């Protein structure tokens, strides 16, 4: 085990080992080339950052504590995807996908020879199967909105799903282009705002791919995944941004879990009709501001003079965070290109920003499905009114100015 520290901030002699070029957006995995982020051989690395996003810090702790060999490599035996996804034509269209590696789930197959020859190449996507069961789906069965079919949906409420976990992989020139900014400006901001965690962002302009230390996304598929990419396949979809308080703990201040459950219901229905349902769950807690900021905003909303109301909903967030929202939907359509989806027949979301991003990316949204009013918790009216007033999709008239000024949220100790 080497005891010296190897800096990766400047190119070094390769010591006979070839650093493979990355031809992002190439039509085949072989032409694109492997992404090498392994730390054991710094000279072979052709990306900035390491695998597993923010979990890299736990890996560091495990190594420091002596529980993990610093040069451990995963044994990928039997880990290949449980369902076929792609390749789709979009994978080889320049600029289509810039925030994930379309070949990320096929690494063990596509680069088998390189891995066997000793290169450290790891999957950034994993695809498996599962059964899920949520009380809301059992309610939907009881209310007669969903009918068990014994295949996709059991009478017990069990739903058969395929799911995929995706770590972000950013092609920096493509990300910069998506935001209409210069690559060097993006690299500099990333370097500075991470406290200098990744010097290569500014010292290695030759390295174009970055594994950002952020959460990725989880996809839940309902129905036959292999039907995706065919023009005749009908698709239902919910793009959901993480809200731990509501999604997991059932907090009633927002509509997140009710909307997620409703989205799943729409997806199950579509699968039962022979189409495919997809729920895309993004790890962007609290509009990508994080839970600490989110809870500070809750306090500011509830303590403000006049009480918690829709007219100041976005203002309170901006006071604490400096922005109303940090989710930036510009990169969101990438996953649809990865899945070969060009049309969404039923879209279970009210967000005009998400809708706009999809349309701008050339993905057609046929029908926008609003959440039934009966599924919205009383305390979440503040959020719903504020969003509808700000341009969110609604099948009914948006709330009036007087309506928005009414305190509808409960107080801090109510
Ligand atoms: Zn929420």
Automatic annotation (TrEMBL):
Domain (GTP cyclohydrolase N-terminal): residue spans on this chain: 3-193
GO BP terms, alphabetized: riboflavin biosynthetic process
SUPFAM superfamilies in UniProt: RibA-like
Any Pfam family hit: GTP_cyclohydro2
InterPro entries registered for this protein in UniProt: GTP_CH_N (IPR022163), GTP_cyclohydro_II (IPR032677), RibA-like_sf (IPR036144)
Broad enzyme group: hydrolase
GTP cyclohydrolase II domain boundaries: 226-369
Keywords: Hydrolase
Domain of life: Bacteria
Alphabetized GO MF terms: GTP cyclohydrolase II activity
UniProt-listed Enzyme Commission number(s): 3.5.4.25
Name under which the protein is recorded: GTP cyclohydrolase II
């Amino acid at each position: 085990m080497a005891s010296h520290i190897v800096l990766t901030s400047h190119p070094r002699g390769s010591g006979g080992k070839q650093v493979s070029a990355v031809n992002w957006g190439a039509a085949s995995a072989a032409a694109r080339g492997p992404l090498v982020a392994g730390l054991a051989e710094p000279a072979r690395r052709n990306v900035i950052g390491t695998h597993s996003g923010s979990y890299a810090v736990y890996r560091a702790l495990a190594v420091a504590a002596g529980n993990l060999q610093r040069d451990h490599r995963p044994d990928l035996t039997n880990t290949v995807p449980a369902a076929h996804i792609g390749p789709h034509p979009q994978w080889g269209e320049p600029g289509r996908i810039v925030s994930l590696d379309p070949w990320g789930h096929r690494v063990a197959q596509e680069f088998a020879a390189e891995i066997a020859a000793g290169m450290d190449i790891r999957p950034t996507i994993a695809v498996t199967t599962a059964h899920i069961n949520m009380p809301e789906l059992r309610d939907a069965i009881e209310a007669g909105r969903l009918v068990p079919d014994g295949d996709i949906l059991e009478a017990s409420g069990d739903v058969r799903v395929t799911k995929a976990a995706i770590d972000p992989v950013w092609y920096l020139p493509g990300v910069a282009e998506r935001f209409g900014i210069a690559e060097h400006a993006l690299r500099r901001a990333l370097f500075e705002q991470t406290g200098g965690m990744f010097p290569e962002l500014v010292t290695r302009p030759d390295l174009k791919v970055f594994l950002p230390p952020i959460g990725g996304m989880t996809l839940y598929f309902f129905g036959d995944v292999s039907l995706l990419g065919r023009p005749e396949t009908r698709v239902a979809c919910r793009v959901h941004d993480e809200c731990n308080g509501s999604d997991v703990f059932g907090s009633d201040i927002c509509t997140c879990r009710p909307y997620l459950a409703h989205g799943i219901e729409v997806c199950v229905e579509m699968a039962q009709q022979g189409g495919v349902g997809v729920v895309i769950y993004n790890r962007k807690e609290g509009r990508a501001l994080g839970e600490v900021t989110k809870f500070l905003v809750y306090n500011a909303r509830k303590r403000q003079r006049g009480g918690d109301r829709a007219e100041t909903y976005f203002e309170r967030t901006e006071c604490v965070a400096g922005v109303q929202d940090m989710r930036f939907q510009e990169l969101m359509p990438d996953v649809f290109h990865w899945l070969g989806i060009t049309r969404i027949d039923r879209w279970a979301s009210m967000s005009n920003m998400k809708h706009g991003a999809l349309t701008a990316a050339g993905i057609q949204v046929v029908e926008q499905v609003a959440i039934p009013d009966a599924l919205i918790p009383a305390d979440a009216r503040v959020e719903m009114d504020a969003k509808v007033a700000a341009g969110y999709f609604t099948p009914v008239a948006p709330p009036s100015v007087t309506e928005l000024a009414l305190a509808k949220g409960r107080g801090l100790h109510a």
